């Protein structure tokens, strides 16, 4: 939160308290503002929150532990498909949300450990390729496991997933407050996802200043030195992997339930790269960076659709680059230029010992 | 038996293409310790540029002989790819040489997607038919085994290129400079080697190989499109790791072995898994091999370099 607060332009440094309230109010009011532009924008905000969770999880792996994971979306897929298997008409299993969510998280975490084992001893660049390969394998299986036994329903994906049901309260239905006032289901999802994101932020923040988080930072900055001072780098890498994967799995479950269907198309390499760009763009190793990056880049395609297309039409008379191409172009340029010009990202992570008081607090425990 | 011979033949063909691509990876890795993710996409640019040139030539001089046309197409595609390789190194990788190790890697991924997007803008999203200039009519040297002239051409051409490259690296002055730079940048530059030029040269040579491989790949499958470089790039990287990254002979061996495993695997996977998995799983063999090599012999078949530089 503090990082996010000080990232608020102008206000952040002068009046942190005001900046803090500004963020809170913005977060709460965002869907209402978005509603003014149409319901689809609220939906986009919901997705932006899911991307934030993904970016937070990937930031744990890439930013904190310094392990480049290019197949991160695979864990998202594991979560989403777990939900699809256990809460949809596909196998006619309808387990409650609170059962499926931990299962999805656990499966994704296990997938993370499974992937972690072979790559433990490897340098960052091998890791990148192996994780990329893992992402592709998962996608190939999702696409082809409809024969001879139909498990994933192939490229068509699985339809009709159950919605999120919080103790009998179905988020997919509009909440009827009074007779003529109801809260749209998209709002309900927004606040639920917001709660999840806030929970993740708190968890990750505590994690970062904990013994584990500091060990990760040490490992990231100098693995040999970290080993020499007695850090078990193997276990910590595994932990980073599985913990990042767990976040991906949770986000995947939420995604499946929110969207109502899953298909391999949603889990392409491009998505992995997009999430990575969010982390890189915002600032690796920095919670605020991941959030700002995710928010900016999740909104980008929609903004492009609404702005770039009419702009091109007025400038050139026709659409030269469709929004999807433009998005890829901007993402790839963002990655290259960020690395060349501002490698620490939009909001650079602070030096590790910028909060000595936090260190004392966690040491005193 | 026919299936076995057929699959071995197919494996050799695709394996030699992998080997050519893997050489580019392994040379750059040997010198910079960088995985040039965009290498596969240079291949794609090579193939599509060649395609464009052929289309142009067919329009201008319809009666031209196929061999001449192919030669001209290569003569255009190779310099274009060399330019791309040079530009990438010059504008991006060179500035990041002393950056934290994730930075060049992320830049390389960005580069790869940038090339794909640009290709998508120039050539569109469609699959293009790649003109089959060398005959694809299959011959039957053995009853039941088919081989096309394109395949023979690919095997012979890649063998020649690999011999040429070995001579370049082992017998020439610039080759010695490359080996010295791979050993130790600073000492090499103290010995009077212009390491910047050597590194740029390595990128250029790798890109040229990728251009040739791209034309081969597209001729073999008869199609080209903006995303075609991704999979062969990834597999060629696997081949480079399998052979021992940084080792030229290893890249060649790894490419061939990977090609063989992949095509034999695709041919027999249905029998092996009792019909549960079919040949649409062909692509996973490369990754399984990659995983196994990295677990059991991270230095690869011929490599001495330790995987962990720390």
Explain the layout of strands and helices.
The complex is a heterodimer of chains A (365) and B (310).
Chain A: H1 2-7, H2 11-14, H3 16-37, H4 39-64, H5 73-86, E1 87-88, E2 93-94, H6 97-119, H7 124-144, E3 165-166, E4 169-170, E5 175-178, E6 181-183, H8 185-209, H9 211-221, H10 223-228, H11 233-259, H12 269-282, H13 287-316, H14 323-341, H15 356-364
Antiparallel strand pairs in A: 1-2, 3-4, 5-6
Helix pairs in contact in A: 3-4, 3-8, 4-8, 4-11, 4-12, 4-13, 5-6, 5-7, 5-11, 6-11, 8-9, 9-11, 12-13, 12-14, 13-14
Chain B: H1 2-32, H2 39-60, H3 66-93, H4 102-123, E1 128-129, E2 139-142, E3 145-147, H5 149-171, H6 173-183, H7 185-190, H8 195-221, E4 223-224, H9 230-243, H10 248-272, H11 284-296
Antiparallel strand pairs in B: 1-4, 2-3
Tell me the CATH topology of chain B: ABC transporter involved in vitamin B12 uptake, BtuC
Helix percentage of chain B:
over 70%
The CATH class of chain B is: Mainly Alpha
Q: What's the count of strands of chain B?
A: 4
Multimer state: heterodimer
Structural domain tally of chain B: 1
Order of helices and strands of chain B: HHHHEEEHHHHEHHH
């Amino acid at each position: 939160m503090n990082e996010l607060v000080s990232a608020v332009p102008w206000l952040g440094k002068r009046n942190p308290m005001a900046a803090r309230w500004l963020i809170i109010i913005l977060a709460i009011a965002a869907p209402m503002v978005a509603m003014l532009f149409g319901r689809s924008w609220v939906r986009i905000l919901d997705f932006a929150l899911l991307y934030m969770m993904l970016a937070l999880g990937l930031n744990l792996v890439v930013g904190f532990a310094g392990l480049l994971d290019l197949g991160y979306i695979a864990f998202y897929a594991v979560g989403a498909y777990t939900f699809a298997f256990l809460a949809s008409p596909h196998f006619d299993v309808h387990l409650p949300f609170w059962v499926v969510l931990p299962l999805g998280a656990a499966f994704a975490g296990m997938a993370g450990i499974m992937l972690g084992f072979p790559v433990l001893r490897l340098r960052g660049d091998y890791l990148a390729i192996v994780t990329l390969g893992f992402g592709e394998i998962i996608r190939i299986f999702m696409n082809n496991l409809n024969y001879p036994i139909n498990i994933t329903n192939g490229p068509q994906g699985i339809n009709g997933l159950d919605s999120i049901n919080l103790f009998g309260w179905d988020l997919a239905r509009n909440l009827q407050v009074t007779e003529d006032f109801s809260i749209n289901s998209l709002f309900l999802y927004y606040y639920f996802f917001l709660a999840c994101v806030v929970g993740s932020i708190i968890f990750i923040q505590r994690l970062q200043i904990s013994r584990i988080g500091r060990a990760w930072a040490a490992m990231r900055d100098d693995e040999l030195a970290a080993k020499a001072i007695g850090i078990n780098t193997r276990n910590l890498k595994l932990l980073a992997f599985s913990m990042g994967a767990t976040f991906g799995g949770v986000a995947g479950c939420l995604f499946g339930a929110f969207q109502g269907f899953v298909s391999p198309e949603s889990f392409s390499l491009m998505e992995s790269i997009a999430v990575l760009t969010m982390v890189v763009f915002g600032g690796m190793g920095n919670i605020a960076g991941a959030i700002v990056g995710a928010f900016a880049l999740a909104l980008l395609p929609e903004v492009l659709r609404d702005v770039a297309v009419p702009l091109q039409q007025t400038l050139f008379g026709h659409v030269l680059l469709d929004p999807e191409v433009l998005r890829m172009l901007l993402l790839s340029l963002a990655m290259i230029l960020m690395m060349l010009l501002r490698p620490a990202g939009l909001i650079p992570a602070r030096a590790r010992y910028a909060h000595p008081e936090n260190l004392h607090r966690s040491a005193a425990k | 038996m026919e299936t076995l011979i057929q699959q071995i033949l197919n494996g050799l063909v695709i394996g030699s293409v992998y080997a050519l691509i893997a050489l580019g990876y392994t040379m750059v890795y040997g010198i910079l310790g960088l995985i040039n993710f965009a290498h596969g996409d240079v291949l794609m640019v090579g193939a599509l540029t060649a395609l464009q040139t052929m289309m142009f030539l067919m329009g201008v001089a319809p009666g031209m002989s196929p061999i001449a046309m192919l030669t001209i197409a290569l003569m255009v595609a190779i310099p274009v790819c060399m330019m791309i390789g040079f530009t990438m190194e010059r504008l991006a990788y060179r500035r990041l040489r002393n950056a934290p190790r994730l930075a060049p890697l992320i830049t390389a991924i960005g580069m790869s997607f940038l090339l794909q997007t640009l290709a998508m803008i120039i050539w569109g999203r469609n699959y293009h038919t790649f003109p089959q200039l060398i005959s694809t009519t299959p011959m039957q040297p053995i009853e039941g085994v088919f081989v096309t002239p394109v395949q023979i051409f690919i095997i012979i051409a890649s063998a020649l290129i690999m011999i040429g490259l070995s001579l370049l690296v082992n017998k020439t002055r610039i080759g010695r400079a490359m080996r010295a730079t791979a050993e130790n940048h600073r000492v090499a530059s103290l010995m009077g080697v212009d390491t910047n030029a050597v590194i740029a040269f390595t990128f250029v040579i790798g890109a040229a190989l990728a251009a040739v491989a791209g034309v081969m790949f597209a001729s073999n499958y008869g199609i080209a499109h903006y995303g075609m470089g991704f999979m062969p790039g990834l597999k060629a990287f696997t081949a480079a790791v399998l052979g021992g990254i940084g080792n030229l002979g290893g890249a060649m061996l790894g490419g061939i072995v990977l090609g063989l495993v992949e095509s034999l695997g695709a041919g027999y996977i249905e029998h092996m898994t009792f019909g549960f998995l079919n040949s649409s799983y062909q692509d996973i063999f490369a990754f399984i091999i990659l995983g196994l090599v990295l677990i059991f012999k991270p230095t690869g078949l011929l490599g001495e370099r330790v995987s962990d530089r720390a």
